[in-house]
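Hey all, quick one. A colleague (J.T.) asked me to put the flavin-adenine dinucleotide job into the tracker so the inputs and the structure tokens live in one place instead of scattered across chat threads. No bug as far as I know, just bookkeeping. Sequence used:
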Amino acid sequence: MVTQAARRTQVLVLGGGPAGATTAALCAQNGLETILLEREKGPRFHIGESLMPDSYWTLKRLGVLDQMKASRHTVKYSVQFVTETGKESQPFYFFENNPHECAQTWQVVRSEFDSMLVDNAAKHGATVLQATRALDVLTCPNDPTKVIGARAHQQGFGEFDIYADVVVDATGQSSLISNKFNLKVADSLLRNASVWTYYKGASREGGLDEGATLVLALQKKKGWFWYIPLANDIVSVGVVGAMDYLLKGRGDLETIFNEELERCPGAKRRVMAGQRSGGFHTTKDFSYKSSQVAGNGWVLVGDAFGFLDPVYSSGVFLALKSGEFAADAIKGAFDSNDFSTQRLGAWGSKFLTGMDRMKRLVYAFYEGFNFGSFIRKHPEMKRHLIDLLIGDLFKDSVDEIIEPLDAMRAEFRASQAIEMAKEEEMANSI
Ligand SMILES: Cc1cc2nc3c(=O)[nH]c(=O)nc-3n(C[C@H](O)[C@H](O)[C@H](O)COP(=O)(O)OP(=O)(O)OC[C@H]3O[C@@H](n4cnc5c(N)ncnc54)[C@H](O)[C@@H]3O)c2cc1C
């Protein structure tokens, strides 16, 4: 039941994660009247702790770099891959491509990082309503594809409507608009799930490698572990694998996690040095994309548009970047008084091209891509690989990696087919 008077604003942002807080801050910075609704109150837990270095440029534009430098977040200089036999790649140091401070980044405690970004949106002039859930978007009676606002529920105050020229969906995996308009397309090659927890006092490398992300393959290529060193001597440790493999008929989360740890000696050895300091969490089927970035009066940013996969830690970077691209398009829409799909979605093709570059590397990883052998075979490709790991995705030169990458993927698929045929032959001969 609607209990408060309707409000009006120029930009209404639904969701106060990195994507929503970025869009709101930049729209407010551009002088647009902006309201941000966040269903939770105060700092809230979230997964997605490892940033990509190119987040630097959005954080700089938001004016929060000094806060990040002064924070307790762990500094990350590299990512390192460990094979199922425990063989470690050289760390991919981000500064190898560009020895600038933008080539280092952070492993963040998301409750603190996200609160900082929401506070920053308020500092730039956005009105932030926390404990306020968007229940549905409001559409134009004559044109159900045109979004004109949202109905919301504020804890303790009840329901109200907010009308806006532009509604930005930043509700993460809830994807309010994408679900309403049936735009969400699951990635059939990435039907994965994850189980994760936290350890205190687990092993860390020293010096430059102390804050490195480790990606450790499970035996028999059944999945992989992330190992992300956070502040206060905590490490985030999670396993990712095919949904059916990881969750079906496997018992409780602790059992699953511990069984998978046995299949990953590199992760087990490291966590054994510490004590578990958190419960177990799980999530599944998180890879999807919407078929549009914008429509008539609306824009999708961050996970509300789509999410690739956790393996290269690209989620928060893409959330920040889409927020930035969307805010620029929204400014253009107000300048030209044009809130059409084309105007609001002007950033879509550039963003999708970058996201697709990353997706090729994600697919390659799940097909068994070996970073070490690739670099040995194509040393000149290392800089492009680092570009992708940094998040420098929006330049055409990165495409030079596509041909050798696809060739290696094809070689791998061919060798797998031979292997499977051999196994079948052996099974038939028994
Ligand atoms: C297993 C796993 C591991 C990951 N690891 C990493 C990693 O290491 N690094 C990385 O960069 N990314 C990682 N990610 C991805 C990362 O979590 C997301 O990409 C990122 O949080 C997206 O930001 P966002 O702002 O789009 O959405 P979110 O961070 O999800 O924010 C959405 C916000 O909207 C609010 N909301 C939802 N519905 C409503 C509503 N109806 N009304 C009002 N508010 C609402 C929510 O409370 C939330 O605050 C991981 C993801 C998974 C699944």
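Adding what we noticed when we looked at it: The chain is about 35% helix and 25% strand. The longest strand covers residues 143-154.
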